[in-house]
What does this fold into?
Amino acid sequence: MKNVICAGDSYTFHCIDEYLAWPYHLDKSAYNVTVCAEMGSSNTMIARNALYQLSKQTSFEDTVLVVGWSEPTRFEFHFDQTHPMFSEVKKVEKTHDHKVTNFLCDGDTKYSAWLKSTGGYGHWTFENKHIDQLMEMYFGHCHSNVNQYIDSMHSVLLLQNFCKANSIPLMNFKAWDHELLTATYPETEYLHDLVDRGTWWEYNGADINDENIIQGLREFCRDLGDDIPEGMHPHNKYQRMFAEQAVTAFLKGL
It folds into this structure.
């Protein structure tokens, strides 16, 4: 039986009935399914979590990795208990679901934690004066879309090359139509040439005939009839269709 590791953001993590994500629709009698996705993950966090989950495997035989990539602008900060703002991070943990995490310590945030920007480009607020000041300073003076994009592409290549080195079948896809793989920054063109597009499930829409447009899970579901409000996630029924038509089809072809 294949061990299917599912990495990504909320499009892979959602576990409430209305928006139940695709991993929960895979046939559990045919596959051992492990979800290492998190709400609001950046691409660097997606890659770290996937590597951590892979490190737990006693063998890579019959292991498969499926990754749903997020938008490149997301980021996170790491704090440990010696940091003067750690107490403020712990306050945020109590008031904001999914903003504070430490998957690399199996969820234990007692001694260290990651603070996630999550979604909403530039609207990263936590109702905490100290944390909000930090975010405002970072976004205003340090955040760079080019650097974020490079970090995201490095994360893609990290998992791609790890899987290739260890003979792990890999399926990548975009959670929605963001700029990953298609940005035109002059500093990143060389990275595109290093991507093995054979490891990607690429969707460009029912009415789009342009190989330079790569849409994702959300657009796939919309084209099948899912009425997804802006900023929301695909509904249960359509996540199941993605699980069947895209992921299970990939797994059966191995």
